[in-house]
């Protein structure tokens, strides 16, 4: 099944001193989704922001909030992120303790359900949750920091996931090192949602963001 191509800028690369404006600007510049990287300093070696910040960002846009939770344990916080205004919530298969339970909880909260795999996690962990998810996020870097280079084995992983999901209308999202140079290969492999932090937020103003998103779209469609 072919799903729409979506650009999801990660606000991790934005200027946190004016986060609301940075979210509004990137949406005005053509972002399809806003990607929210939540980090706990435990599951990943960095700390970003939590549900209160997301709640305050909701005032700046109605765009889809694509929330990537890099936290463990994750279950105690799912309701707070749903209430904060996330539209989709993605949890790590590695975060545990019970992936299926986490996915069911997100579904019961009425949100789009996502699961993500770190670079070293095999595709086989998805086999028994395929009917419980709307989105699979393939990490093309080890999570925790923006500005890293895409790990090439992620491309083959995307292709294998594309075959595995068959006709199911599951979005395949890729995150890490997505630039005008790498997005084409990720699209060819089968991804339709592209998270990009540094490649979108470079230039630090709305016009630059528009040009950066256009460059990504052009490269993806080439
Ligand atoms: O989740 C993460 C990192 O953990 C990513 O969303 C990165 O923040 C993407 O940044 P770039 O590689 O596009 O700069």
UniProtKB/TrEMBL annotation:
* Binding positions for a divalent metal cation per the UniProt entry: 35, 37, 68, 175
Q: How is the cofactor bound?
A: Binds 1 divalent metal cation per subunit.
GO biological processes? pentose catabolic process; pentose-phosphate shunt
Which protein are we looking at? Ribulose-phosphate 3-epimerase
Q: Which gene encodes it?
A: rpe
Annotated binding of substrate, by residue: 10, 68, 144-147, 175-177, 197-198
Q: Which Gene3D superfamilies match?
A: Aldolase class I
Q: Which organism is it from?
A: Aliirhizobium cellulosilyticum
Give GO cellular component annotations, separated by semicolons. cytoplasm
Pathway the protein acts in: Carbohydrate degradation
Protein family per UniProt: Belongs to the ribulose-phosphate 3-epimerase family.
């Amino acid at each position: 099944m072919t799903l729409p191509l979506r650009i999801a800028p990660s606000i991790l690369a934005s200027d946190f001193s004016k986060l609301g404006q940075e979210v509004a600007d990137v949406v005005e510049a053509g972002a399809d989704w806003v990607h929210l990287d939540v980090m706990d300093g435990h599951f990943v070696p960095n700390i970003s922001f939590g549900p209160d910040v997301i709640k305050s960002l909701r005032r700046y846009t109605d765009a889809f909030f694509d929330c990537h939770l890099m936290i463990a344990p994750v279950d105690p916080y799912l309701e707070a992120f749903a209430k904060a205004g996330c539209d989709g919530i993605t949890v790590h298969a590695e975060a545990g303790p019970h992936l299926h339970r986490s996915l069911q909880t997100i579904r019961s909260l009425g949100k789009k359900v996502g699961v993500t795999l770190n670079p070293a996690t095999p595709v086989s962990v998805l086999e028994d949750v395929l009917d419980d998810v709307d989105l699979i996020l393939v990490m093309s870097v080890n999570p925790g920091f923006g500005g890293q280079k895409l790990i090439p084995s992620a491309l083959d992983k995307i292709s294998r996931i594309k075959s595995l999901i068959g006709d199911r209308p599951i979005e395949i999202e890729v995150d890490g090192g997505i630039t005008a140079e790498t997005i084409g290969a990720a699209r060819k492999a089968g991804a339709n949602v592209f998270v990009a932090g540094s490649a979108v937020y470079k230039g630090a103003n709305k016009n630059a963001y528009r040009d950066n998103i256009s460059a990504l779209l052009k490269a993806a469609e080439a």
